[in-house]
């Protein structure tokens, strides 16, 4: 006796119902795959740059950014781009984000130059050293000298001395910490103050007292003050 494997009308109806339900789902999957592929392949449409920058070389910045921005929008390596741009000595920090549908936002935070350091370095307001190519064009009123390993001591001494000088209206234009530990200070009126290595606080206090009592009227004629003596000062005149 032969077996009949043909589908019954009920089975055929169930298959058709399943197909009718699956076709829209398959269409949605295909559309989603197409949309995803389109988004992943979509190029960067706009780049917006924020932040006030005065010394950053905009042309150089563009040259370094363009190769990274050639990638599709969703595949731009934001971390790599940030590291590349932060190679610019003037950039303290770069924040990069994506914005739907195809925009890259870059916020530039430029270093704030505070003082010259040694012959070709600049100190920013956070006390970090950087070496910009255009350092000679800066007009900074303070110049600091030290070995790199003594920079923290130099900055602490400046803060202490600047505070100590405020009541006497003395302004610092230069501080030098010599390799052997001796301190040399230049005031804005051209007076050089030699403090040496030892008993620094005592010598500073003696200088300030003497200056307030005897020297303001004579400061135009003073060239150098040597405070390294145990019980007094030596004044060099113009």
From TrEMBL:
TM regions (residue ranges): 21-40
Alphabetized Gene3D superfamilies for the sequence: Cell division protein FtsQ/DivIB, membrane protein fhac
Domain POTRA, residue spans: 42-111
Annotated keywords: Cell cycle, Cell division, Cell inner membrane, Cell membrane, Membrane, Transmembrane, Transmembrane helix
Location in or out of the cell: Cell inner membrane; Membrane
Membrane topology: Single-pass type II membrane protein
Coiled-coil region: none
Gene Ontology biological-process entries: cell septum assembly; FtsZ-dependent cytokinesis
Any single Gene Ontology cellular-component annotation: plasma membrane
Assembly and interaction partners: Part of a complex composed of FtsB, FtsL and FtsQ.
Family: Belongs to the FtsQ/DivIB family. FtsQ subfamily.
General function of this protein: Essential cell division protein. May link together the upstream cell division proteins, which are predominantly cytoplasmic, with the downstream cell division proteins, which are predominantly periplasmic. May control correct divisome assembly.
This protein's name: Cell division protein FtsQ
């Amino acid at each position: 006796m032969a077996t009949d494997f043909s589908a019954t009308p009920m089975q055929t109806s169930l298959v058709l119902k399943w197909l009718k339900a699956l076709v829209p789902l398959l269409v949605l999957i295909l559309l989603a795959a197409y949309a995803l592929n389109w988004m992943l392949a979509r190029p960067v449409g706009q780049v917006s740059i924020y932040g006030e920058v005065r010394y950053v070389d905009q042309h150089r910045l563009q040259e370094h950014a363009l190769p990274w921005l050639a990638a599709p929008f969703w595949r731009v390596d934001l971390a790599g781009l940030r590291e590349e741009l932060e190679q610019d000595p003037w950039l303290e920090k770069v924040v990069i984000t994506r914005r739907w549908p195809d925009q890259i936002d870059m916020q530039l935070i430029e270093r704030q130059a505070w003082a010259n350091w040694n012959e070709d370095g600049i100190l920013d307001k956070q006390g970090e050293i950087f070496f910009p190519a255009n350092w000679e064009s800066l007009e900074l009123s303070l110049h600091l000298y030290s070995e790199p390993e003594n920079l923290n001591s130099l900055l602490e001494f400046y803060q202490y001395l600047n505070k100590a000088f405020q009541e006497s209206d003395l302004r610092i234009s230069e501080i030098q910490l010599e390799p052997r530990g001796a301190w040399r200070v230049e005031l804005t009126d051209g007076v050089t103050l030699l403090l040496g290595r030892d008993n620094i606080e005592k010598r500073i206090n003696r200088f300030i007292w003497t200056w307030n009592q005897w020297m303001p009227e004579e400061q135009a004629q003073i060239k150098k003050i040597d405070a390294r003596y145990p019980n007094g000062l030596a004044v060099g005149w113009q």
